[in-house]
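A reminder before we start the practical. When you read a complex entry, don't treat the lines as separate problems. The point of joint prediction is that each chain is placed relative to the others, so the output describes one connected object in space. Small molecules and nucleic acid strands, if listed, are placed in the same frame. In the example below there are four entries. Take a minute to note the order of the lines before looking further.
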Amino acid sequence: MVIDLDKCTGCGACAVACQQENNVSFRPDESDKLRTIAWMTLYRLDNGKDYPEHREAMLPRPCMQCDSPHHSPCTFVCPVNATVRDEHTGIVDHIAVRCIGCRYCMVACPYHARSFNWWDPKWPKTMEAMLSPEVSPRMRGVVEKCTFCHHRLNRARDRARINGEDPDGVVYTPACAEACPTGAITFGNLRDPHSDVARLAKDPRAFRILEKLHTEPKVYYLSSDQWIHKQSDNDLS
Amino acid sequence: MDKALIPEGVKRCPLPVFGLWMLVLFAVIAWGVYAGLTVLIKGLHVTGLNNYFGFGLYICVDLGIIALGAGAFFSGFMYYGLSRFFPQLKELHKIINLAVIVGFCCYTGALLVLLLEIGQPLRGWFGYWHANVHSMLTEVIFCISCYAIVLVIEFVPIILENRKLDAVKPLHIFGHNLHEIMAIFAMTGTFLSFFHQGSLGGVPGVMFARPFAYREGFFVWPWTFFLFTLSAMACGPAFTALICRLMEKVTRKQLVDRSVYELIGKIEGVLLLIYLILKGLDTLYWALDTAPGFGLKLSDFYKEPYGMWLLVAELGICGVIPVILLLTPQARKVNGLLFLAFFLDCAGIVINRFAMTVEALAIPVMPFDQWAVYIPTWAEWAPCIAMLAYGAVIVSLSYRYLPIFPRERELNP
Amino acid sequence: MGEVKNSTSKKGLGIVFFLAGFVGALILGWVVFPNLLYSSKTQPVTFLHSSHEDSSCEDCHYFRDDGSYSGVPGVAKCAECHEEPMTESEDERILVEEYIQQEREIPWLVYAWQPDNVYFSHAAHTEEQGIECVRCHRDVSAEEKMPVYKENRITGYSKNTMKMVECEKCHAEKGASNSCHICHK
Amino acid sequence: MSLGRRAFLQFVGGAIGGTLLTPIPWKLADDSAIWTQNWSWRPSPERGEITETTGTCLLCPGGCGIQARLVNGHRAIYVKGNPDHAVSRGGLCPVGAAGLQYLYAPYRITQPLKQTGKRGDPQGFQPIAWNEALKIVADKLAAVRKKGLPHTVACITGQDRSSVTDLWKQFFAAYGSPNLYTMPRHSDSTRLAVALATGYDADLGFHLEKATYVLNFGAPLLEGWAAPVRIQQIFSRWQTEQPGLPKTELVHVESRCSLTASKADRWIACKPGTEAALALGIAHVLIREKLYDAAFVSEKVFGFEDWTDAAGALRKGFKALVLAKYSPKDVAAVTGVDAQVIQELARELARQKNAVVLWGQSSDTPNNLYHDLAFLALNALIGALSDKAMVSLVPSQPWQALPEPAMDLEAFKGLGQKPLGQPTSVPKTKVRPNTLHAFLNALANGEEYPIELLFVHEANPAYGLSENTLAVQALQKAGMVVSFASYLDETAAYADLILPNHNAFERLDDVIGLPGAPFAFYAVATPILKPHYDTKSTGDVVLGLAKTLGGTVAQSLPWKNYEEVLKLRAAKIAEGATGLLVDATFDPASVEPGVSLRANFKKAADVWKKLTAGSCWVEAPQALDACTTPSGRFELACQGLLASVSTNAGDELFMAHYKPLPPSGNAGELPLLLTTYRSLSLAPGYVPNAPFMNKLLPDDLLLKQDVFVEVHPETARKLGLRHKAKAVLKTPLGEAPVRVRVAPTVPADVVALPEGLGHTAYDEYVQGKGVNANSLVEVHLDPVTGLGTVWATRAQLRLA
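Here is the predicted structure of the whole assembly.
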């Protein structure tokens, strides 16, 4: 996935679409940002300067689906194999029904891409009607996170099977990329050198967050602002 | 009935006083159980934990208490294993029972608290059934539960020494046989404990995307693996000694020879010194190589309320000072200084465990992220305090009804 | 020392007690427990595949264009033939009057019902791929009455719900991926 | 006893041993884990066939095409943009993406309600049958008309771009009342300005697709301006390098460091509310340095040079006034923008071939007329209104679809009455001034004449109108209030009768025109699923009421149902035979003003079919030739104002000039200026923030129930306020508890408050969060147009 921060206006359509697609639960008060469940979080960055040199930018953060050798930071630590990276697709999945809720993966993830179900998820009765059967609602006491909408991949593969196509060659779009009004999110197969994402990942504007940790995120960002680049990683200078 | 259970030739406080004491402890336990049930029924939102602080007081206390409970394995190791080569270690015989009991309390208590910490306790057994061999937590789960079983087995012969139980012939024989093979269990326990103390250290150390906690290491283990084991050895017996001293104060009796304390002091002093040197080297390497590799400098890791004072307290006040005290024969002779040193030793290790869990998580890794502060709630304090009360119950009962101090009769004629 | 004399007989008795407990537990565990664990339910309407031999399987169980599988047909499908009762049968009367006319779906008890978290791709398990329906489902061709539906009182699963080990085993045998998200959602 | 105990122990031992050899412990452990995986209190979504339908989002005037996914055809689970849609091309804003949370909101009104207690008591609502409810309204309408007071019936609608509004117009004309208002829009003032300058009744369309340089005076482009998704996509295009094309430069003028300011290529920070002065300063430089489009000005513009009015008096022209009053130095003093920067901007603007000037605080606040004229004048000077058509005039109603209403004597009499509260000075143009604030003011104060019956349709003035307390007072004064709300909002709470409309996703409706788009637009919104409550389309209700009233009213609204009205529109399109039915391949840059598009359709049925399938009809805007002003040209000096300003008025009063309306209150007591801002993740309009959107709000915007105001660090230091401190914000209208976000996003002595919070109605997911900005800002009635404008309010901030 590549997210163009020059195009991103921080509107949040990606995050809303994600919540709706993935049956993310919500509560009357969502202002406790340390306990909220969000697969796609919007961070606000600023250049640290005074008015009128001040500038702000939004940075949407899905799960980075870290590609670090052998294990992602989170999959390495899960004691029960509830979160595993599928080496075929590169997607780091998290199976809520296997999760015992030890939160070790959350502790290990520097991107805060994982949220814990501190409460029993509860929807207003009338809104239960908008829950999608494509993604199973989680329960209290487990961790959840962005899955790159892998259920959409499964659907696409099934469609290919029925139509006699190669299920391994399918492309699909996750909810966030689909919703983005500015087309800032590009999704595709990074391993395919001809894909848009592979091309954009090599753009001079491209960077990843916390590269120095060698987590090898599979989410790239694009920005022409140096001050945004600078905040992508810790820097001693 | 009560009288009949008390070991021969020793004096214990009157039953009503003991009963009252038990009542107080049970009240605390009841409070903890209530808190625990609240957590289990309502969910973890009653705690102060959050998405940034996935680990908090529960884990911190668990890590701390297990390190302190290391007296069991390490005293056992010294007594059953090393005393062949260093006869002076035979002296530990006088305190080994207490070490086992304290260890038993620490480990079983920690397991109970751990049950609260996981979001889905009914799936806790997945840890055994669906184990991920790469996870340090898997190592922890297996080793701790195995070691807890070992401790139970080690505790049983002590229980069987109760006057009434000992009178039952088969039990007596059983207990005796157990005693015979105790060395095997002690060594098994030692092996397990070496391992899981280390894997507890591995828990933070392997988090390669968490610059505060991550350490490079040897083979599959990060340095924290070895440091945790070493630090546990350097504080476990000290903690046993502290408990013993506390019991002496409460009962106003001398329970072990003072030489035992001094021996422990000497051992702990040496171990703590070794630990401190290694920990210092580790810290330096981490601060000067590992962290800069991540683009961070030491001062980036410390910000109020988790300021630099933590490092000073851990390594300076609770590290260097006890080492000096313990390695100075004159200081070892002075009760106040000796036990102060033991206390600082234990406190330093607990601070270490706090830093490796809570502080490690407060640090924003993404530069645009925020520092977060963690404040535990009553639902976290209560079970932890109750766990201490539970330990007190076990120790009190054991002391009252079991002959755990072989020298008690002689020392208190 | 009368106790010593009694000890052998006591020991013998002890074994009896021990065995009593042992055998009792075995009976409880192997015979009583399974019956307690499952409740038996009957289907709201009796449906016999054998009485629908004039239609082909694919009339009701088919793949949709998006690759999903239709599974158990809805009442609209039944209505295609049963707008009015075709026979005198009581079950058909219930079907027509209580479901078709009121446009209510029939709350079928699905024997192979999988929970929410399972993504089962029928498209990947077809006869063309060498997997017969009866590999997982009961043979309905000659069925004369619908089997009793056994529901686990704790889990709410059907007794026939396939457990994950079986999926994994077959996947491993066939060399199919055992990645979590292949089957979970 | 000893034997018993021992035997018991042995029995237990055996039992334990035996149990371990049975499935009991293992099965129980497994099953209890499975139980936790399927807790019955966790909802289990119904499975089934998933289908897709198309529709149009009606949650804002943006007219985005949507697709909804349904389970078994009756349960909507997902809304996304329709990639084939001509304007939104698959994009969607967060409000639209969260749209289902309105459809399935617990605060939906599920059936007609009648207030049985005191007005405003939410507990007093009782269900009532549709026919009974309609009878009450019809009886009231008949009775009022019988009394000869039809003008005492009024309506406020929030849907000004739908055929329902045309039905209301038709209804009010035939019934005989001038008191039909829409919720305020920026177009209320721009349409007046356009009418005065050109004589046309038209909206402004900006050719942003073609622009190479955009000078934007405060329009919150990225915070939900005009048609939000269209703007977002244009912004995205500006950010995309296209080989061979120069990159579009966006220069944004605003006092606050908004997202648009941050994302612009250049941000010019000015003092709040002084954008118009800056525009005139730039005009000054253009004129002084002769950088303006001289050909256009000399051929098509009136009033640039000095002119003579109808009475023969010589009056100063725009050139003379601007040169005299808006030198960069003077303007720098007013705006805080360097004189040199002003010159730079003017030269840059003149250098660009396709430059355009945008303005407007937000899409739903009318502007000071003279300021609108100033920005329009600047566009005229740079030739944006010339054949380049960077700015074009889009008729607000491209075709008259409905026949002339039949009016009886009663209707003539009633319609001839002065709209309640409207100042007599309003300029007489083709555009009827939408003087809602003046109306509410008069109603609240019991002036002129009472209102017997007030309809409120798709509007929530009790919350969403600036100075919303005025609306609340007015609602309490009205004889009877009938609401068509879908949700139990703040305004519906004051209704006597609620006739719930279908939700925006459930009803058949249409979208007439896109705000800010340089082409005429028409789309039909088809429901994505059947209404699931006992609600009725308001279009049908209006038609039904007309039929019950009979006579000329029924004659004027003869259609069987609302669908017929929309089909009539489709038929008119087919009849007109111009314009195109388009999908995502439509390129707005291909549309030229005055050049009608060759129709790609013939039959009415065909048009209807395509429109309901998601196609949009578009048509070119009109050309600027043959203005219908007295001079026949684009008037910089608006002669149309002669009638409304006194004859001995100064020359300045005919044309653009900088004239802020003084805020009330004492600068000593209220030393700060309060400005409000919006963001796309806060729904400020008719619908409240959906729970999904609440998740997006940072905790220094909303923390528990407290909203944060932005304050510059210097101001904060002066006031002794720390970051996140609790404070009290006071304005002449009242005070409210807030928290402080100390950030250099605003200049010193300015407080910025977000819009869209502070609801008192709806449910626990919405209620009581923050402060309603509308309750603190001050409305200044423009003395010329009578429109309620908002720019800045004096305020005080003190530690709580």
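Discuss with your neighbour: The mean pLDDT of chain D is 93. What might explain this?
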